[in-house]
Design a protein that fits this description.
Elements (H helix, E strand, L loop, with lengths): L2 H36 L3 H31 L7 H17 L3 E3 L11 E3 L1 H20 L14 H7 L1 H4 L1 E6 L6 E3 H15 L5 H13 L5 H10 L15 E4 L10 E5 L13 E6 L2 E3 L16 E5 L1 H5 L5 E4 H6 L6 H17 L6 E5 L11 E9 L2 E10 L3 H10 L5 E18 L1 H8 L3 H9 L3 H14 L1 E5 L6 E5 L3 E15 L2 E8 H12 E4 L2 E7 L10 E5 L4 H16 L4 E3 L6 H9 L5 E5 L1 H6 L1 E6 L5 E5 H12 L5 H7 L2 E2 L5
Parallel strand pairs: 9-11, 21-22, 21-23
Antiparallel strand pairs: 1-2, 3-4, 3-5, 6-7, 7-18, 8-18, 9-10, 11-12, 12-13, 13-18, 14-17, 15-16, 19-20, 23-24, 24-25, 25-26
Length: 661
Amino acid sequence: MGMAEDLTALRAAVEADQEDVARAGDTVRELKARLATEGASAAGKAAIDEAIEQLKRCKIRLEESMKQYTLKSGGAKGDSANREAFNEAVNNALRRRLFYIPAFEIYGGVAGLYDYGPPGCAVKTNVLRFWRQHFVLEENMLEVDCPSVTPRVVLQASGHVEKFTDLMVKDVVKHTCYRADHLLKDHIEKLIEKDPLMDLKRKDELKTILVRVDELTEKELGSQIKAFGIKAPETGNDLSDPYAFNLMLDKPSATRYVTVYMAISPRAGLLRVREFTLAEIEHFVHPDNKSHPKFANVADLKFQLYPRAEQLGPKETVIISLGDAVKTGTINNETLGYFIGRTYLFLTELGIDKAKLRFRQHLQHEMAHYATDCWDAEIECTYGWVECVGIADRSAYDLTSHADASKKDLSVYEPFDTPREVEVLSVVPNKKEIGKAFKKEGKLVESYLESLKEEEAMDLKLKLDAAGRAVIKLCTNNQQFELVSSMVRIAKEKKIQKGRNIVPAVIEPSFGIGRIIYCMYEHSFGVRKDDEQRTFFKFLPLVAPIKCTVFPLVQDKKLETVAMNIAAGLTATSLSNKVDVTGNTIGKRYARTDELGVPFAITVDFQSLQDNTVTLRERDSCNQVRISVNDVVGVVKRLCENSLSWVEVLGQYPSVERAAV
């Protein structure tokens, strides 16, 4: 069978599978409509479940037939070999241009530790600067600067010591540690990828394990690792049984943007490292009213959401507006939705591809211990979908826990619009009688009584009313004291209140800066169509490490003087720039700065000495215009500020035919 016949057969298979999906979808809708009109029944629900399973199988067959047709017809290839080649090309360019290099490289390096070179430092600085502009300044936030090291008692109070654990496995020979769930996920994803014609039942089984992997116990996870024969990635050695590893004992709690240290084996280059930077926001909100005054600004944004129901069902993202997502309860509240929208804008304005960005809702079993609702901004790169931002509604958990542990009031006063009559607890120690009975310990007893919660106070009242006496135990030193009824008055009283004290809830967006930057590198990487050896980064001016380069056409003192004057003008307007006076050809110098992601280049040639003009080149298109020396700095500044487009520049200034790019 020839190429044309192959494509005809594959296309027919795709069309047949599309018809099967349409029919299966119609069946599901018909059964649901019948159930709604005739009423729920066990048989009706079973029929719907079977129809949904049939729809899933049809979709999987369609996905595979479309993949085969795309590959045969010369379309985009998404196999692992291509991803690995792309990954290697990106990282070769990053290392070659010193965006990053292994730390302590002359001593052999240390896995998971990297040095950011000059362009990498500049990109990171620009990303953090924009983060502060986008959130701190535009949202009128207040910054704090806290220690990176946190006392254990604080982490105990917040629940991190007890509950922030992952299941790890260890290379039995090298003693290197790995996240057990990550190894299992990676292995299953590779199995599915390598066998596109895998039996559908087997593929469904594997995908079910992927969805449920976070639910597995130590024993179940260990059984799966043994069943799949998974070995240590670097050595191929056997792995230990899974064991709980506390993530917080060897790293500090994060505030603002701080450095965090990890003690497990890092893999996946810049994505999983021992040390990384977090940028965090703690946004306090009324616990009973989580509306947001600026939610309307983002309500109409539409992008990929991956709600809990979709992960457990069709396993497909949905395109829905934030307004509808909040209205239907998919997103818990307006404030959470607002920060999801602001995060979407932040990432896409950095240059993250919208088609490779989704917001995934945590499943119930993977929700952090404090979270009411939580969404992750996940970005697709050659390592798969990578969690880069977590946006959690932490409720009032943290403040309540720390208030209880520290015995400090962390509430805020909320005034009422009009005074209200409320019933309040009154606990009044009889200080004279307590002092007489307990001497110097009397102050401890008084403090204990005054700190009682309502439930504890009423329980003590019941005991005193019933027996006339009750024993209390101080939690600070385990001392016991016997009280009699006359030592304390406990009652509920009606009072007129003008306000009340409440503990705010917290919405916390947490940004993994390094992961965002790496994904941005991949999304910005390109290859010249006419020369596959010429790679470049399509950084937006916002994040580009250098905004503009200035080239004298050849080594000539007069040309260099003009170039230096232009560079001084760029510097005076706070535009980072680089003057290249080497003797390389202009084409080579363009190529070198393209690989650094520099968006604009100014070239001073001999015509510049005659008419005081220079050429201005745009990186992505390689198009050039002729422009006055007096105007060029202002034009570049407006281009970098996004107040002027390159299309507008092409319309205002004469184009220059490209002799060498």
